[in-house]
Every structure is written in structure tokens, then in C-alpha cells.
Amino acid sequence: MRLIRSFRCLLARSLFLAMGLRIGYWRKAVERAWAMESREEYLESILKKVAPRDANGNPVKTYAELKTAPILTKKAFRHSASRPNKSAVFHRHTAGSSGDPTSIWLNRQELGRMLGVRDYCYRHCGIRVGDREGRLWGRPETGLKSRVKNFVLNRRVFHTSGRNLEKEIQELIEWRPDYLYGYASLLMECARQLKQNGQMVPGLKCVIVTAETILPSQKEHLSRIFRCPVHEEYGASEFDIIAFECRSGHRHLVNPWLLLESGPEEQALVTDVSRSSQSLVRYELGDILQLSTVDCPGLGSTQIISLLEGRTSNRFAFTAENERFHAVEFAYAVDQYQQKHGDLFQFVVTQVRPGVFGLVCSPEPKEGTVSVAKDIEMAIQRSAGYEVKVETQSGLERQGKTSYFVQTINATNSGAAMGAVGS
Ligand SMILES: [Zn+2]
Q: Ligand 1 (ion): which residues have CB within 5 A?
């Protein structure tokens, strides 16, 4: 069995190699890059060679120029003259949560680098790119193209939600993946079902959670049910993995060719110094984050993402007096509640009007959604010092990448609520 598995992994990696994607080569390059004495010098040496263009079309050749380059919005990137060159043969489409899809073109080196970073992170969890993956994803995939792709990648996609939940989980158990990869909500749903049926997925080495915010209490729960470590991945279709959680729970920056900044509005700005097919300089991802430094040499940079939130527009909640607080307070409140009650559920808070929020939980908490709502009200009062009203709502439909907080009020930069406009 183990021999077949090793062979299958080797086959996947050989297929990558046949496509000109040297995963092992690039993983070693990642290791070397992180071992460099001066990161600034390293980045500058690449900038000099590649000279990516900023939002105004000017070449960026030094670290100082990069620091003062204008911010590149997604919209500007879509409409920019940054057309791919001929060697860019790989194409990926970002789903575009804002509605507009973005085209990303990569040459072999660029995709190879991304896979090298992925392999580098996976090794940290005791797996490799090419190991057998059970992917929990939003939609079941059909068609020859995705079947070929899944074969090459040695993975199978499971849709652990809705009508076919039991059947999908049975197939997942029989597939015996080396690791699971997927959205937090689908992993939670899968864990809930496994616990209820007294089943388990045997032989898992790790679980990688992507794309959605996950609470520490939920991560612990997943780790218990799946009986393996759970690692959080932060990435984007434009860059693949940007940060990856180490064994000590930090989200380290892992791609040595990316420079991540928390911009003036705390927005995530990413620069790829190595990419020549398309220029991405101070590219605005649409997420909110704060960075800090830790003394943890285990993985990538000592720089970590200490706070991460979804869409920029969903960052702040407003009180009846039009004062604002960080929406992450809701996540902290629910995390505390879950720890205290030993209860696990998904939730979404929606701002209905200033000072008033709607709460949806799934599955229904043991003590009822009302008890969670009351608890959140008290927690916000305690931590932020504001009196808010949390009402219960029904009908949580989570598909794909979602946020735990949805702001339906238009807000200006000064933070004043402009009145409810509906979603
Ligand atoms: Zn760490």
C-alpha cells in the first residue's frame, strides 16, 4: 500500500516535470532564499533584473522605488496594458468575489515557483505536493478536463455539503487521502457528520484550511475529529500561497519572492518581484491584515499575519451613534462562546442598520442562537465598550469563500455610516 502511494506521488511529480514544472528545484530555491542574510538585498537584486512595472507603468528597479510605488487596484490591473508575453502558457482565472474575473498568466518558471512554495509548506506538515489529496470544495467537478487535472494532481474533489453529504463522506473515507484540503465551512460540516456517525478518515497526516476565516476553537475541533494537525493557508489565485501556519500557530509569510504590506487602510498589498509575464506591484488584494514579527525560525519569514479579515468593505461595524469598531470583535466573541460551551457551529453576522446586527448560526447551537446573540452583545460591551443589538436570523447558506461578517451599510473613510442601503 505504502509502495503504491509513493509510486503514485512520484508519478504526479513526474507529470509536473514533464510539463516543465520543477517542483523540487524551486522548493530548494525557496529554502535558499529564506536562508539569505539580507532580505532587502535579495529582493533588490531580483528587482534590478526583472524591473516589474508599477500602476503607472514605470519600471521598479530598487527597494526604495517599490516602497513609494502607487497602489495597483484590481480594476486597474484588469484594464492595464500588462499583457502576458508568449512564454506565459499557464492561465488561471480568479473567481472574483467582486463579480469581475481577473486573468492571470504564468510562464513555467512562475508556476514552478508557486508549486515550490507549496511543496515547501507541505514539507512542514510532513506531506509533499503529489501526495494523495482529498479536496473539500464548493462544487462537485465534472468533465474530462477536471478529471485529467485531478489525476495529474493525485486528488479527488468531494462536496461535503447538502443532499449527498453521507455518500461523499463514505467515498472520502474509502479514498484514504494523505491530507485534506478545503474550505473551513465544508471541513466543519464533514467533521460534524463524521462525529455523528462515529466514523473517521484513517491515515490523515494533516488538514489544510484555506480561503475562509477560521476560529481557534474550530481549528482545535477539526484537529480532534481528524486526529491530525490543522494548518491555515492564506493565499490568492494571483499568487497561490502567501502565508502558511507553522506548528506553533503563526501565519508566516512563505513566498520569498512576494512582498506583503499592510497599506494605509490596513489593506493587503502584494508585490511579486520575480514575475515578468504580468506586473503585480503593490497589488490590492481586497483583504485587511496586520503584520508582526515573531521569533520563530521554523517556516519562511519571521514576519507573520497577526490579524486577517476578509473583504475591505466588511472591516468595520457601526454603532447606533455611528462610531465604529473592528468586525473581528465578533469572531473573538463567538470563539470565546464556543470555548466556554464546548459547542461548534458556523456563523455569519450581518449589519442591518447602525447598532443592529443579524446573527445566523449553523448548525443550531446547543443553547440556541439567542444565547449566542446575548453573549455577543455582552462581549462587545466588554471589549469595545459599545452597546449593540444582535437579533437572530435564519437561513445560513454558505458556498465557497465567505466572511463571518457582512456589512450592508455604506461607509465613508471617516467611518460615518451613510444609512442602510441593503445588500
Ligand atoms: Zn511560527
A: 246, 248, 250, 296
